[in-house]
């Protein structure tokens, strides 16, 4: 899985969670389970399947426990649940997730709108969740939202994000994810934040979450890979967004990311044809168009 630079990447499929949460149409539990089954069949090994949030606020994520109960359990596939607070963690642990992804927001205004607390309280929540997750033996990721810019506050200084990284790292996460929640980041920011993460959290796995809102997501992903071993989030078909962030459109697409990684010398283990077929299927279920380009252009060589 090495590139020319020697870095290694693996893909985290977030379509069943981030890909669906901002779509107009809410899918049934059975359809969401089938989506995840298709992703597994395509070779994806880490899949963010559900979000343990209030279904009144995010109705697309209702029935998280039912989804988890219906999933096929395989030794080499990890199912990830996103949590925002300790109640969400209670639900995630009871549902038997393999990993928890905890969101810590880097701007007070977005944190208040998204989680009902400021950044300081969000960090305190993270610390309590991290302690409990570690005691439960569950792999834990801290995702730092709006690390590249906030839809309400504007620029988020890198120094602020790195300060939050440092605080998060003190609680011993297995992985820290840096998220461009609204798709405003550019490679220069990736390099600056990546250097900060390496400095304040040595030995902690790196993960990156990019949106392609302004057509910079794939450049950012390849820049992150150039910095060293990492995980890269993507969504089948390029679906996704945040219901609490205006104009936060599309994640980078799994099929397009796979093409770039494979052509760059990274063996992903992902079946590109199955991913494209799944994107077409889920697009019909959502009554929403695929934004990925590979399904239109086709692979190369053919």
From TrEMBL:
<protein>
    <submittedName>
        <fullName>Hydroxymethylglutaryl-CoA lyase</fullName>
    </submittedName>
</protein>
<dbReference type="GO" id="GO:0046951">
    <property type="term" value="P:ketone body biosynthetic process"/>
</dbReference>
<dbReference type="InterPro" id="IPR013785">
    <property type="entry name" value="Aldolase_TIM"/>
</dbReference>
<comment type="similarity">
    <text>Belongs to the HMG-CoA lyase family.</text>
</comment>
<dbReference type="GO" id="GO:0004419">
    <property type="term" value="F:hydroxymethylglutaryl-CoA lyase activity"/>
</dbReference>
<feature type="domain" description="Pyruvate carboxyltransferase">
    <location>
        <begin position="9"/>
        <end position="276"/>
    </location>
</feature>
<keyword id="KW-0456">Lyase</keyword>
<dbReference type="InterPro" id="IPR043594">
    <property type="entry name" value="HMGL"/>
</dbReference>
<keyword id="KW-0479">Metal-binding</keyword>
<dbReference type="Pfam" id="PF00682">
    <property type="entry name" value="HMGL-like"/>
</dbReference>
<dbReference type="GO" id="GO:0046872">
    <property type="term" value="F:metal ion binding"/>
</dbReference>
<dbReference type="InterPro" id="IPR000891">
    <property type="entry name" value="PYR_CT"/>
</dbReference>
<dbReference type="GO" id="GO:0006552">
    <property type="term" value="P:L-leucine catabolic process"/>
</dbReference>
């Amino acid at each position: 899985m090495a590139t020319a630079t020697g870095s290694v990447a693996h893909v985290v499929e977030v379509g069943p969670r981030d890909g669906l949460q901002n779509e107009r149409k809410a899918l049934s539990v059975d359809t969401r389970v089938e989506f995840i089954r298709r992703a597994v069949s395509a070779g994806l090994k880490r899949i963010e399947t559900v979000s343990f949030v209030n279904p009144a606020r995010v109705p697309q994520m209702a029935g998280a426990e039912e989804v988890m109960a219906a999933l096929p359990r395989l030794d080499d596939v990890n199912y990830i649940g996103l949590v925002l607070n300790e109640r969400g963690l209670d639900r995630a642990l009871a549902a038997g997730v393999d990993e928890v992804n905890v969101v810590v927001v880097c701007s007070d205004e977005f944190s208040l709108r998204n989680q009902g607390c400021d950044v300081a309280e969000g960090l305190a929540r993270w610390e309590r969740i991290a302690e409990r997750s570690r005691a439960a033996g569950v792999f834990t990721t801290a995702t730092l939202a709006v690390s590249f810019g906030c839809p309400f506050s504007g620029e988020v200084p890198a120094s602020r994000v790195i300060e939050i990284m440092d605080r998060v790292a003190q609680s011993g996460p297995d992985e820290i994810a840096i998220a461009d929640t609204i798709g405003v980041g550019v490679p220069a920011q990736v390099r600056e934040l990546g250097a900060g993460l390496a400095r304040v959290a040595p030995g902690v796995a790196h993960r990156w979450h990019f949106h392609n809102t302004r057509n910079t997501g794939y450049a950012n992903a390849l820049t992150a890979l150039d910095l060293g071993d990492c995980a890269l989030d993507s969504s089948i078909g390029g679906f996704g967004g945040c219901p609490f962030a205006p104009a936060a459109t599309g994640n980078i697409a799994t099929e397009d990311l796979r093409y770039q990684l494979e052509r760059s010398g990274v063996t992903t283990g992902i079946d590109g044809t199955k991913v494209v077929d799944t994107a077409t299927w889920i697009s019909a279920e959502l009554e929403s168009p695929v934004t990925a380009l590979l399904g239109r252009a086709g692979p190369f060589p053919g």
